[in-house]
Structures are given as structure tokens and as C-alpha cells.
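Provenance

Sequences were taken from public entries as deposited. Structures were produced by running a predictor on each sequence independently, with no templates supplied. The record for non-reducing end alpha-L-arabinofuranosidase from Actinopolymorpha pittospori is shown for reference.
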Amino acid sequence: MARISLDFDRILGRVDPRIFGAFVEHEGRCIYGGIVEEGSPVADSAGFRTDVRKAIEDLQVPVLRWPGGNFVSAYHWQDGIGPKDARPQRFDPAWGAVESNRFGTDEFMTYCELLGAEPYVCLNMGTGTLEEAMAWVEYCNGDLDTYWANRRRHNGRQEPYAVRYWGLGNELWGEFQVGHLSVERYVEKAKQWALALRRVDPTIQLVACGHNGWSDWDRLVIDELVPYVDFHSVHIYTGSDDYWSNVLLPHQVDRALRASRAMIDRARYVADVRHPVHVVYDEWNVWFPTREDRRRDKIVAERHTLSDALAVATYLNIFVRHCDTLRMANLAQLVNVLAPIVTDDSRVLLQAIYHPLRLASTYTLEFALDVAVDCDRIEHADTPDANRMTHRIADLGPFDVLDVAATSDASRSRLVLNVVNRRPDAPVEATIDLGSAQVRGEMTARVITADSPLTTNSFDHPEAVSVSERKVTVTGSR
Ligand code: AHR
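Predicted structure for non-reducing end alpha-L-arabinofuranosidase:
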């Protein structure tokens, strides 16, 4: 018998709703064929697919990162404004695709407003210039009688968009990135850009381009940029065809968040930086490249399994437990590419990972509670696919078979427990011990499960992995 013990007085911190953010990139059918499909019977007059919009609205995404990803490092935003038919069609060197530019800044901002999400724009630090980046901030946020603010007004938008979050480039540490930089050149350039961009709008919040959270790149970026930025970003994707690796690899993020947090604390102390700097995990998901369906979409169309849903639920629990450090996270990506939402010409499919995302964003409460879990533990040896640095986690074990996060509201009258049973072959019976708190009445249990860890949803079987709900009557403290 496992035991989950809670104490409403042991509060870890306030959960930032921005951990339920997402990311959309001009890649595959994420934007075109996902978010927009001009002329489609399921699109509105602006070309936005209404079925996709409804599925995103149900996820209550609070912040949306755009336009890349790798795509942004060769993207010139000025190609994507003004009359759509006059916009240039360009070659996209990131994904070897043709970019029509019919979805640009004004379309993205409109979409964010429809969703009630805050925009987070990543800047082109590959082929882009500082002047271009400053002009983008002015176009979005300028309220004076100036050229770029007036271009925005001319394009139909009077009020500034007031974009708060700006990313200082994407994954510039990688040679695959257009305009790849050494860390020394990156920090010098990012410092220069940060100072100049804040002259255009001193209220913006800047995100430094980190790596996996513990690399030398992260260390140097944190040491040099903490005085100039508000966030340090981390990107980690995990995924394996070994069941235990797949569901346990998200714990790598424990390492990333602990390491980044320690480095940020140190850098702030040494440089006497008074403003807070937090971590944004602005690309995360289960991504298992050998499973990609490249025939259909050319790039990264994942078919997510129940086991991936368990991994995603574990990620979300980790985000809650690290609420003090992690202030934003962006699922990569939202539609069609590695995504919880998949489209064909006229239908939307909710993949297995959609369900933990929706439950977490809908039900997670304001304060994270410390939870003690007493259950079976798994010793996990690194598998042969552990050659990638992000796939070595044996040192972090043993791992609890039940992964648990708990949140409550300010009045302590509500409790939400997220429990991930990672045993693939059996239920785990558990006692939930509420200490001195008492439950009166009914609790609701929402359960995500399926026939096998490998079960996926498909257009033929859209609810093979789904959520069932039942009421449980509880009295007392257990
Ligand atoms: O999300 C897919 C890609 O993964 C992004 O473009 C890039 O930033 C990351 O490597």
C-alpha cells in the first residue's frame, strides 16, 4: 500500500499560470494547415481554423511563443506585414520550406487576443539585425508618432500590442541554427541588443537563450547576461521506445531547473543584481525522432502514446514542484508538429498528451504543496539510447513509481492532486493522508488511461486514450 501525505501548511510557493504556455512555429503544418487554413470550410473570415481554436481555448493557454524555433533565425518580420497578396514568398532555410508570409505579426497578435494569451516573440539573432529587432519592438509597442508605430496603425491596428516577452534568439549554440554563434559572441551580441531594445521600450522582459540548463553555454550565458535579462531559457525534449526511459526522462528537468537556479542565484549575488531572474522552459515535450511520421508532414508529426501522456503529466508535476524557479513553460508545439492537436482537412484529433495538459491547466490551483510519497521505487539504468546528453538519468534515481503534485487555493478549502501511476502493468493502491485537514463531501476523480501504454488516438479511434470522471465520497482525513 502506497501513502501520499500532505500538509496544507507546507507551501512550496505560488504556481505561475504561465507554466501552461505553448509555442507555435512556422514548421510543417503548425501554422498553415493548423492555425490557419484560408478558404477552408472550417476557417473563419480571417482564415483561422475554428476547430483548432476551440481545442486551444480548452487548454487555456496563457502565453504563446512565436515564430520559432529554428525558423526565426532567418525570418524577416517585415516580410509578414501589410496586404497579404503583396507579401514576398521566401525560402525558409531552417526547414527547407517555402514561407508565404501570409501569417505575420498582425495575424499572430490577433490570434493571441482571440485566445486571451499573451504574445511572446522570439527575435532573429541569426540573420537579423539589431535595427530590425528594434523596429519590431517599435511596430508592436510604439505609441509615438514614429515610422514603425505608424506602419502598424496604417495596417489597421491603432493601439500598441504591448508585447511583454521578447526572446534573444533561438538555440544559437547549435550548428544547425542559421547564424550559429560561439557563446562568447552570443553574450556580447545579446548584451548589446538588450541595452538597445530597452531604449525602444523599457517595460519589455527579455529572455536569454540558454541550452539544457546545466551546460557550459548556460553557465556563461547566466554569468554574463543575468544583469540584462529577466529570464533564462531552457530547451529539453525527451522520448524513448523503452517504456521506463520514456516516463522517467522528464526528471532530467529536475536537474536543469536545479542547476540553472543555482547558477542564477550565484550570478545575481556576485554581480549584485537586484531584479529577479527566473527560468522559462520555452520548448518542452516528448519527442522521439525515430517514430516521426515523415511521410505525411515531412517533419516531426509525432503520434503520441499513453506512455507519452504519462511523461507529459510527470513534466507538469515537476513544473508545479519547481514553482519557485520556473515561471513560464511553452509546450512545443501546439498544432500538428509534435503536438497535442492534429488536423486533417476538416477534423481535429486530440492526441493522448492533450488530456494531461487540459486537466492540469484547468484544475491546478494557486499554491503548490509539499507532498511526501511512500511507494515502490524504480532503479533505472541508462539504456543504449542514452547517448544523447539529455537521456542519462540513472544518477537521479531511484524514482517513485507514483509521481505526485498537489495544489490548493488561498482559503485552503480546495485541493487538487495530480498522481501519475507509472507502473504499466497494475494499479497501485494508495492512502491519501491529509494530516489535520478534513474532507467533507465529494471529490472528483478524473482518470486518463487506455488498454496499453502504446495506445494512441487516431481519426478512426479518437478516444482510445481519454478521460473518465467519477465521484468519490470521502469523509475524514484519509
Ligand atoms: O520544435 C522543433 C524545433 O526544436 C525548434 O525549431 C527548435 O528550437 C528545437 O530544436
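The first strand starts at residue 2 and ends at 14.
The chain has a mean pLDDT of 94.
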